[in-house]
Amino acid sequence: MDEPVWKSQEEWHAAAPYAVHFLLARSTGPALYVDELNWWPLTFSLKCRQIIAADASLVAPSKARIDTCSTREPNAGVAQRFKSYDWISKDEATRLRQLPARGARANRQLKSDLMDWAFSDAVMALGPLRAYVLDGIRQLILKSLADAPTTSQADATRARANQEFVIVSHSLGSYLIFSALDMDQTTGKTATAEETRSDLQEILKRTSLVVFFANQLRLLELVGLDGPSERNIATHLQDWGKVRCEYLKSLPSAPQECKPPRIVALNDPSDLLTWTVPALDDIHVENYNVRNSTHWLWLFENPTSAHGNYATDKRAIKEMLTSSSDEKK
Predict the structure, then answer these.
(1) Alpha-carbon distance 224 to 227, whole Å?
(2) 10: CB partners within 8 A, 6+ apart
């Protein structure tokens, strides 16, 4: 709307995506390193200022969202970074909370949770901001490799011998992660760009399992109907299947037929933002129905819980913890 999105260098730093690292030490078996990639700060200011604040006067103030958008919490461990940033000032937040409600209660809650807070991310990720989101995800992936304790300084961003990856993504992340990992999506012919392509391909080769929570592939693929020359999500996934198979065949004593990588998609039928994953060449796709929250008289399920509680599903946790590489028994 002809307004600067980030109005200062501090705001640009506050919009930086970030990673959180975990080490799961087990009594038996190798340790698991979990890297949680958060790209959403890049879209946070737009949602808070252009959608949440503006919709308060039309529909009703969403107090929970306004509180989130007006909280500042610096990251004590990283200079010029924030765990939360006040994209809406305290004074403006106070004024917004006092506005009257005009929309019907159920309608305004659905609009705030679904359209204002959730679906606006998808709109931004399909437009010009997409390049920044994908680049942020790529940087976080390579930075996560470099942060692993067993990484040598000389080989900071490369996968180590016998290292395997499992990708777990939620909602829009399911659509973005393979676009970010696609080697042909990186631009430029510089040495750095070529090295990035090589590093991303190494990750794809060593990824045997992908878990999708609330994927939106069928919906968001509607934006890519220009023609067969366009690289869509099916192309990204099929490329993964091919490079994975080539990698398995290159291993010592490898069988002629490689076991295809797997996609496990968990979908709550009452989730407003999930669809099934279609069948794909060179990939084994499994769609499972789950229930993330209570059904009230089979008429209603909390849409926020339906979309957000996938990580509590025991089947998903078991798949992630027991998945092993195809060449090992």
Answers:
(1) 8
(2) 80
